[in-house]
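ok new one. same drill as before - structure tokens go in, u give me an amino acid for every spot. 267 of them this time. try not to just spam alanines like last time pls lmao
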């Protein structure tokens, strides 16, 4: 089936997932309230206890990390949605329709982008209220947001694959929590890399969440010349390193997810 048909069918599925918000408004509440909660929590509760470095406002340092954490967590909607559809038998209904077999996955991951765009808008507005500013111009700011969405889109394919493997929504929520929490908290999202001991620092420096966070800080202009960037290649070239991860994840998990969907829907 050609790419145009896959894209068309996938868009129909994506609209179905977004329209679902009308019936389950709690989804939208989580998407919009969670980013606000994280920004306010770290800015006002932990901000006074964390030193981001000389000449660097912690609230500006924080926002890039909050952006990265939120879009990664937002990518879990794909896994949870697929697990729910499998559990309720909706995938069986999709099988009876004249549609591309990969459209369900394309639609799910596309709807994640829509959720993440809403989250980024809310976070940016909240960040502006607490003192965050994008200091490198509009184009660099948009490039930072685009990079975040690309990375989240790639992660959503990982979650989609996991969602097709597990038997319920509860399992995918627990599994994603176990994976995402270490990636986001053992990174430079909330504290400088220098604050980690020598055992953890290599993991932090090569953690893809650290790379996308560092890339956003540089594109938003939320860095300081007095705070040196770690010598690791990943931190010296965070945009390129993030894009390499995006390509690698998509190259591995798109075919894996499509194959697993075929297996799961044929049971």
């Amino acid at each position: 089936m050609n790419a145009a048909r896959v894209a068309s069918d996938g868009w129909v599925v994506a609209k179905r997932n977004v329209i679902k918000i009308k019936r389950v408004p709690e989804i939208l509440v989580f998407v919009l309230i969670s980013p606000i909660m994280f920004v306010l929590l770290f800015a006002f509760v932990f901000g006074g206890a964390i030193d981001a470095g000389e000449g660097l406002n912690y609230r500006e340092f924080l926002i890039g990390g909050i952006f990265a954490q939120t879009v990664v967590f937002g990518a879990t909607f794909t896994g949870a949605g697929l697990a729910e559809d499998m559990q309720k038998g909706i995938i069986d209904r999709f099988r009876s329709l004249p549609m591309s077999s990969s459209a369900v996955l394309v639609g799910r991951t596309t709807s994640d982008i829509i959720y993440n765009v809403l989250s980024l808008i809310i976070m940016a507005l909240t960040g502006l209220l607490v003192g965050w500013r994008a200091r490198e111009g509009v184009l660099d700011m948009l490039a930072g947001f685009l990079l975040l969405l690309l990375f989240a889109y790639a992660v959503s394919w990982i979650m989609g694959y996991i969602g097709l493997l597990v038997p319920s929504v509860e399992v995918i929520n627990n599994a994603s929590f176990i994976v995402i929490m270490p990636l986001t908290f053992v990174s430079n999202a909330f504290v400088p890399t220098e604050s980690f001991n020598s055992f953890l620092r290599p993991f932090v420096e090569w953690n893809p969440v650290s790379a996308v966070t560092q890339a956003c800080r540089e594109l938003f202009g939320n860095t300081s010349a007095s705070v040196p960037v770690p010598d690791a290649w990943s931190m010296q070239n965070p945009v390129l390193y993030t894009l390499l991860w995006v390509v690698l994840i998509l190259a591995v998990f798109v075919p894996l997810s499509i194959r697993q969907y075929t297996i799961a829907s044929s049971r």
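The first helix runs from residue 3 to 23. and btw The mean pLDDT is 81.
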